[in-house]
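Hi R.,

Here's the chain you asked about this morning:
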Amino acid sequence: MSRFALVTAHPEFDERVRLAAAGLPGSLQAFRADFLPSTIDDMFGQLVGEPLEVLVLGPDLPSAEVLNFAAAVDVRSPHVSVMYAAEASPELALAAMRSGVRDLVTPEADVDTLRVHLEQAATAAAYRLSSSAAAHPGEMESAGQGHGRVITVMSPKGGVGKTTIATNIAVGLAKNSPMSVVIVDLDLQFGDVASGLMMKPDRSIADAVNGPMDSLSLKTYLVPHSTKLYALCAPLNPADADRVSTEKVGELISQLAAEFQYVVVDTSPGLGEHVLAALDQATDVVWVCGMDLPSVRGLKSGLEILSELDMLPEHRHVVVNMADRKSGITVQDIEATISVPVDVILARSKSMPLATNRGVPALQDGMRDATVKGLRKLVERFHPSWEEKNRRQAHRRVVFQ
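And the predicted structure, written out as tokens:
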């Protein structure tokens, strides 16, 4: 049962939050004030009933107080989702992320919008709480439990739209899990995540791996995006790739997975040592190939090598991009060659290159296109509800066989 708390003296915002929470499981405890207590104990001591999961801070509260209070909550109760009602500028989004605010919502948001944000915040809080409990020694059932989902996007060769797919996965996940998604550009020499998201980062992954990797320090290297995700971009100078060791890559991804619900890793083509380090941390691998023989043969070789090394993650998703009936080979030909089914087919599209060149991912732009439908289908594969549905279907097949 979700538990909500609200601090605001803004009567209209107070009413809308109450109406939004009324349609959700759990209860809401409201504090009518235009200031925050000096310590979080002053507030937490007044809470009654179910454990707090979502703390909503109103638009009338000073931003400096909100950020300081959120930082204290993040240290004391890191599973709690702090929502702040404020207009999200890039500067505020970055400061909010660093302080522990999990979501920014516009002060004029209607009841339905607030209800969606409250649901997402409660889901993220429950996830963090369960992950934290699972991470205690003696309670972890399997390696990697208690961490976020690490989705490594890779391809045997370049030019197949890998980065476009990775950025759209991140954008799609952020729609359901705002401020709980980070995309990492591991194409250290020629990474395009920054340009694909129209970003101009001051710092990069090379800075992150050569500094302290505690939670607070790592957040200073992340760049917030308007879709409520964060990015850790590739070095601006290709020569800086030499500063990134494979050991540090594994440590970095592990630390990010402890902080975020989803970590999307865009890799360089092939199976270099940095790619293998990312795969070692991955819960999912997204294989991207085109409808050309070199790409398909490369995919077949890659799957065979990783199988021999026992490095295939539990969840595998094969994506055929830029599919074209005039290519001379079919999806069935690809499946017969690689000996595994193709999960998602993305048709060749005139709109996708335009979106890429604009730096606005298709799932952000709301494009209507068959390829966009395919991207949504791919994103759905990472939602817990999709896995539960598949488990039920598999169970029914076993029962009726």
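The first helix runs from residue 11 to 22.

Let me know if you need anything else.
M.
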